[in-house]
Amino acid sequence: MGDSRYIVKLKDLSSFTQRKVNLLGLVVEFSVPRRTNGTDYCTVLKIIDQSQQTPEVAVNVFMKDIDGLPHLRSHKDIILLCSFKVEFYNQKYYAVYDHKASSFALFDGRISDNFTPYQVSPTFHHLPKDDVFVRRLRNWSNNTPFDAGISDYAVPLKDINGHDFIDLVCMVLHVCEVSSGKWVLFVWDGTDAPAVDLKKELGAEELPLQLELTGLPPSVLYNFPRLGTVLTVVIDEAYVNFGNHFKIVRDWVRIRNLHCRTVLGLWKGVLTPQTKIRHLSKDDNSVIEHLRDYKERVAQCGYLPSCISPTSNFLTEVPNFEQACCTTLMEILTSPLVHGTFKCVVRFLAVLPSEAKYFRSPSGPYRMTVTLEDPTARIHALLQNGDADEFFGERLDIDVVAMKMNKLLGVSELENSSRNPPWTVCCIGFHSANETDIWGSRHFHICNTRLFM
DNA sequence: GTTTAGGGTTCG
């Protein structure tokens, strides 16, 4: 032993099966610390070194205390594993933590003269010779072009249909605890998740504006992009105190094995115990590609939902706003103005009251609330009085109004259990009742919009 | 004192 330790190259792992080794590697992937089905908490890392970039070697770390597990700060950080056991499983070699013998230390991957680990396990002993190995790995890492590469499972949000689980290259926008022990992640990849068919019977009372939330604070929403879907990702309960163990926010990641499904017409991601995180550098090819696609989209189509072309035919027209640019519901939600009117392309998801005979209040004028959606958000908007007269046309039979509303809601005359509301252009006015709380007191109404039919 | 985890698909 002495003052140095023997570090095994990853390519030589096969010679050490069932033995304890020391390894030094770049961490290219990690799982967020979580509860196991045994008695411990665990995190799974993937490491590479100068001798072997593929296959990446998986490292399983177990701890009685979740806070003691390695907490990676950045891509390409370095881990020194001491006395980890080499196991051969499913034709691959693994490094596995042993409670009696193993220890580890985490180092910043950037080149510097600082060789103090930023995290160590309790029994880790630093040896001066470690610095030499860390320096070598840093130099190699910073002189070798790396890329997270492409994944066979990578799917942008716009192509999510038909996939149960995907690898998602995305920016993490926000992490929060929505109720005691229930964590949610908000991610964005610059594309629009596809519109979802709704069950025919789903009415305004059943359709939430957001999943898992009564509403994000405006200060958080304000930092979200105005275009592209923000996917809500709920966190499996195995991730105890998730927010304390996942610190990557406003950075790009590849989330591997993210489960996706729809709930009440909204897309929802689920971070399962099988999910892994790959932190991506800003010059990773997949990040550059996403940002380039996004810029091209904005340049070519502005803030239209991506399934709409500028020449699309709608059931509606907006008489004084033909030349105005479209914007998104997220833009309206986060506008700093006290009042204004914007043109949007939306779907009419529901109306309240649901029956046409109640669209008018007892005193006569129309008074209803519609649930509107675009790829960025859902809102409730009033449709009433003169705006509703203009919308439907004046002096109409209730049956005609009902028929028109059904068409907007995508209710087909066929015996069909689902409906698919068509995209519709409309003007949405907004005003804030309280100037000291412009987002919290904001109301929306449809105006300056006419149905064709 | 032992176990935990250890990746994966479907359509051209």
Automatic annotation (TrEMBL):
Residues 7-142 form the Telomeric single stranded DNA binding POT1/Cdc13 domain. It comes from Cinchona calisaya. Keywords: Chromosome, DNA-binding, Nucleus, Telomere. This is Protection of telomeres protein 1. One of its GO terms (molecular function) is DNA binding. The keyword Nucleus applies. Its main location: nucleus. SMART domains: Telo_bind (SM00976). It holds the Pfam family POT1. One of its GO terms (cellular component) is nucleus. It is found in: Chromosome, Telomere; Nucleus. Gene3D superfamilies: Nucleic acid-binding proteins.
